[in-house]
Amino acid sequence: MAQDLPVLVVGGGIGGLAAALALGRRGLKVRVFEQGSEFAEIGAGIQLGPNVYRMFEVLGLTDAIESYSVHPDNMVMMDGLTGEEVIRLPVGGAAFRKRFAGYLYGVIHRADLHQVFLDACKGEKNVELKVLAKALRFEEEGGRVTLQMEGGERIEGCALIGADGLWSRVRNQLLGDAKPRVSGHIAYRAVLPRAEVPADLWQNNVVLWAGPRTHLVHYPLRRGELYNLVAVFHSDKYEEGWNVYGDPAELAQKFSSERPEVLRLLAKINAWKMWVLCDREPVREWSRGRVTLLGDAAHPTLQYMAQGANMAIEDAVVLAAYVELSGRDWEKALRWYQDERYLRTARVQITSRYYGDLYHAAGVVRELRNQFLAPKPGADPGQPSFEGIAWLYDGIKVPTAAPG
Ligand SMILES: Cc1cc2nc3c(=O)[nH]c(=O)nc-3n(C[C@H](O)[C@H](O)[C@H](O)COP(=O)(O)OP(=O)(O)OC[C@H]3O[C@@H](n4cnc5c(N)ncnc54)[C@H](O)[C@@H]3O)c2cc1C
Asked: Is the C-beta atom of 18 inside 6 A of ligand 1?
């Protein structure tokens, strides 16, 4: 019987493991195929909104996440040219917690987040994990999906989830749309041990220094033992690049007109890893028959809202709920899942682009940005409004009934 076959997940990143765990917890057998030689994540930070803490609770991961993560006091935007504070959001305070149903904002090392999912998957008897397993193609026939692996093996499942990231092969076969859009923005990332961060530059905040066509973000990681740095600038020199070594001289040149605080932090690092940032236009449909996409494979976004991984985890929880609610009617469940997710994830994709424009504003637009974002006259700094971001941070309800 096809229904007795496992669910096949291509990709063992945060999205693939979250999907495997959410389905496994609901009693489905799942097999995860990762092309790499181990299940691992790169060294960098991930920001976690209150929306994803709600998902951690659903998945029973709250304590494990709390043992690694840091709750910053504020998100702060500084003007990289003048050093003036543009806006401050107290994401670690009682008002934020109250507004978002008891959840705070957090930051975590990607490897730690991935490890939490990996440990949970290893402890879940329904989940089987396989490395050095690269999927090439799939076929869907007779109520089952067959995955063709590199090396010739053919693996059968009742359904297939492509969680294989930005350059997804599953998407390529399923949707056949164009390549991802190269944004012209380049990210350099590095992590510093706390002891190497000058004491006057250490803050328990997520700080964003907004400069013309650049920005630098920093925040603490791993219980405060590390400091995460992400520097972004515009360049049309690169088309591809994912976790490759960058050129510190190029970075220094791009930020040369900016504040000494920014330059001092940049100068602390001599081995940056570089990413060419890409996204896609949102699409309404990413499920067909018994095959679907999840995370970056479905809705890759620029990182300016810091929500790509958050969205992948939300996807996983919603997908698993609908599989159960449909009585494992895969066509129905995958359609319900996509219909519920496409607008929310599209909003993140599109708003992230606008945030990028805002962060990188130059000239008069920069001055206007600072004016728009400044606290309104008479506003009580003790009573900040979080309503602008509530559509995102309020999070989602886990489906408990079939869509009407
Ligand atoms: C600079 C930067 C900062 C970011 N900051 C944040 C943040 O603060 N918060 C946040 O929520 N998000 C952030 N993101 C986004 C986040 O990193 C991604 O959205 C998230 O990692 C996507 O997870 P995924 O599992 O969908 O894809 P991936 O992490 O890309 O995982 C895909 C996996 O599939 C495997 N794979 C690919 N093809 C195959 C195949 N054919 N067969 C088998 N395996 C395959 C890959 O090896 C990989 O392990 C950031 C991204 C960048 C670039």
From this structure: no
Rounded Cα distance between 334 and 326, Å, is 9
Annotation marks residue 105 as catalytic: no
In 3D, which of 285, 276, 14 has the Cα closest to residue 176?
A: 285
Reported as a single tens digit per residue, the pLDDT across 80-120 is 999 999 999 999 999 999 999 999 999 999 999 999 999 99
DSSP state, residue 398: P
- Tokens 């219980």 belong to residue: 223
Three-class SS of 113-154: HHHHHHHHHHCCCCEEEECCCCEEEEEEECCEEEEEECCCCE
What SS3 class is residue 243? strand
Cβ–Cβ contacts within 10 Å for residue 357, how many?
11
Separation of CA 13 and ligand 1 centre (Å):
6
Q: Which of 54, 121, 296 to mutate to test the pocket of ligand 1 (most atoms within 8 A of CB)?
A: 296
Cβ(287) – ligand 1 distance below 6 Å: no
